[in-house]
Amino acid sequence: MIADRARFRGARKLSRATGLRIPDQVFHGAFLEAVSSGINFEFLDGPLRAQLLEFVREFLSCGCRDSPDCGCPERRFAGKVLELREEGLDHREISARLLEDFGIDVYPADILSYLEESVHVLEAIREVAQIQGRGALGTACDRHLKSIVR
Known about the structure:
By secondary structure, the chain is an all-alpha fold. It has one domain. It has helices spanning about 10-20, 30-40, 45-60, 70-85, 90-100, 110-130, 135-150, and strands spanning about 5-10, 105. The chain has a two-stranded antiparallel sheet with strand order 1-2. It starts with 6 loop residues before the first strand and ends with a helix.
């Protein structure tokens, strides 16, 4: 999954500022726990604080009982990558946007692979929807496919 490839570029700076050992894998349990509960954001510099606050707002704001270990952050991140593609950004631009907005570093090639994989999954869902007579689902898949493939 694309979330496994995500790294937080400011992990070392964050570790130094907090005195905690924080992994650079964004969706690692220790990183998510530290960001959601163990960090005093007042000790961070402006850009790092802004990126982390945006990360928390975008990916960690679910109401699940097991949050942040519920899987929602990873699903939201995967959805964000697809959303950015549907807005017209290519894989390089998506990588740059994730880095700028959230401090998340993902190689453009990994994003491209994820997008290709998503196309195959959507095509399979569309085929099954047609077999099952679920035209609305097939139409939704077609709409998303056109937005991703363009």
